[in-house]
Amino acid sequence: MGNIVTYQVKIIFNSREHEQKWFSNYNIFDTLCLLRSENSTHSYYVPFYIDDSRFEFQFGEKWSLFEGYEEDYKNRVKNRIWNADKDNCIKKIFYRSSYALDKIFSTTKDHISEIRYCRYGFDRIRFRLKEGNFPKQHELESLNIEGNFINKFGSYLTSNCRTRILGISEIVRECHNLETEYYKTITGFCRLNWEHPQNIFPTELSEDFKLFFRACETIEFFWKGRQTLEMTNQSNEKYPDSYVVRSDDYWDNVVDLEYFKELSAKNNKWNTSKLSDEDKYSC
Q1: Distance (Å, rounded) from C-alpha 94 to C-alpha 57?
Q2: Which of 67, 164, 250, 280 is the most exposed place for a label (fewest CB within 10 A)?
Q3: 90-98 vs 5-13, strand pairing mode
Q4: Which domain holds residue 80?
């Protein structure tokens, strides 16, 4: 199961008319195939996902599509869909890849953007403290704690690897949607991992978060009422920051300057201008 990368892809069209023109030439399955390497024959235990109203796709690849290869190979993969776009329907394609920490980048007809770490936003955290622990006064104030909730906007880096350790018959049985006749991902959290969220922002509170989380039994992150990540404390004296982590981040809680620009999303609540240097990734 090594070297399997989960990809989640979102296509931005130039206009509604361009969307319609594209799909008059290519169906949704043609589009999925054009996003992948010409050598890709299956999804390597990552359930396929297609949202044909928001033009979002999920699939697995044995190796990364764009990292660690010569420019000629990367351009061949990238240009499969762009060469098919004879009518200039597509404006930009965003990719999120998950192998270790999630990364995000985009492609246009002439360019592959810088690959950087993908940051995910939260607006609330629910926690359950270990027996006998109570929030300290400075934590109540700095983390804006009310009851069992931290009411703070913030963001983090994590992994959303959707590889399922299942046989193909189990994947088909769990994923097949008889109404739409294509594979849909199972809604809910990714498989367990042991990497707790990294580089929590605002950075001035990162130490407060870390120390407070150590006192908790469970920690759950939310974005607009949707649970995006949960941590179960497994810490001990030798490993004070050990957690079982399950994540369910998606395009709705991506915090990225380029992505916000394309969607005209308000980003000032995250102070994203401070994040660009911090989240650079050199591939």
Answers
A1: 10
A2: 280
A3: antiparallel
A4: 1-113+164-185
Distance of CA 195 to the CA centre of its chain: 15
Instruction: Compute CA distances 249 → 75, 143, 198, 279, whole Å.
Output: 28, 22, 14, 17
pTM, to two decimals: 0.84
190 within some domain:
no
Q: Is residue 39 part of a domain?
A: yes
156 burial via Cβ count (<10 Å: 0-12, 13-18, 19+): buried
Examine the domain organization and report whether 140 and 243 are in the same domain. Answer: yes
Q: What is the pLDDT of residues 28-84, one digit of tens each?
A: 889 988 998 777 766 667 777 888 888 999 888 877 777 666 677 677 788 889 999
Question: Distance of alpha carbon 28 from its chain centroid, rounded?
Answer: 22
Give the count of domains, the chain: 2
**Do 172 and 151 fall into the same domain?**
no
Q: How far apart are CA 248 and CA 101, in angstroms?
A: 14
For residues 222 and 181, state if they share a domain: no
- Tokens 């009422």 correspond to 225
According to DSSP, residue 84 is labeled H
In a shared domain, residues 148 and 169: no
